[in-house]
């Protein structure tokens, strides 16, 4: 039987892959997407790490645990009394699974709507062939397709500690951390990055005693220093214990739990005994099983697919996007690259501006930023002005009962162009979008300061921080 031939075949159905496939189909290409994620029943579950064991399920659990925390500690401030508060963890997990399935099904619907052919299985290169590339699909049945253009969007995997594999029972990756069946009495987290802080927050709110061990001497080193300090104070007040500058030693796991030997920042030998241990020390590009060597697809020393600024690989008409290439491992970065590549294949000029990609940590308080930090501007010797405004002085934040944090603007000292915006506080994930738009249009802090913002709203803190750059806040 002749192989099916497509203009574009996307390997991987995560945010970068499924979006690339949909955009390619919109542009008139005969498009297929290959993805191997399975649900509990063995059926297709497109959406990649983000939908299945990352962004989406973690936000579902964060929402559930936030409700529990509010009910237990803050409802009384609103005159709401509750007795015998309890958490049904299996029900919470079932809700999370429902949210995930809704997203899986939504992607399958979008494929049908946009006439994208979906193959459920693992895609790998076979050889160059007349008309492009032969790609094998290893699913329930093995088949091959031919693609004129290939977009590799195979994502990333959790990085394990050397010699300490994930068993997803005691030693957990992000996957296992989302499936803990009961609240652990003691939880350890290695790594104070996004995943570590978010999952640590979930289980701390539900009653776990959480200790985070971080090798770096500073907390959230990639975040603006002032924001990181504010967030650190808030987490400590909540009871999240964070130890910095530690060196991890032997880790032993048995039926009773996990014992972590480590050296603290002062050189003292310590031991942490926990019921569960989440390891969140970063992620590695997923090129296992892609059969890159068979066709000469170049990988770097990390196993990432090597690409140029336009996401072109070393092979003609083979592209790669998302976590499997250089740049930040963020779902929305992958989506933008997926769209850009589909448009480049169509002869258009797809563009991704790395400097205006927003970052978000969905803890409470939320942390969000775009552009450069104050320490980066100092390091490059750039003259800048800074302005900030606290949520404590914002009427909507007071009404919400959530006044932690602030909005901070950094602008060029001469031109007033916005160079970075940093937010720690309520709904930072939503507020950052205004800053992204402003920076894409190369707006000045004065531009935001002159725009009317609804009252009372949290977004007024953004306006006031922009006013603060010129030292003329109105409400502080």
TrEMBL record:
| Highest rank taxon of the organism | Bacteria
Instruction: Cite the EC number.
Output: 1.8.1.4
**Binding of FAD, residues:** 59, 123, 154-156, 323, 329-332
Q: Which reaction does it catalyse?
A: N(6)-[(R)-dihydrolipoyl]-L-lysyl-[protein] + NAD(+) = N(6)-[(R)-lipoyl]-L-lysyl-[protein] + NADH + H(+)
- In this protein, the active site sits at 455
Using the chain's own numbering, where are the disulfide bonds?
50-55
Sorted alphabetically, which Gene3D superfamilies does this protein's record hold?
3.30.390.30, FAD/NAD(P)-binding domain
GO MF: dihydrolipoyl dehydrogenase (NADH) activity; flavin adenine dinucleotide binding
Q: Which cofactor does it need?
A: FAD
Q: Which residues form the Pyridine nucleotide-disulphide oxidoreductase dimerisation domain?
A: 357-466
Where, by residue number, does the polypeptide cross the bilayer? Answer: none
Q: What is its main location?
A: cytoplasm
Fill in the misc note.
Answer: The active site is a redox-active disulfide bond.
Q: What is this protein called?
A: Dihydrolipoyl dehydrogenase
What species is this protein from? Aquincola agrisoli
Q: Which gene encodes it?
A: lpdA
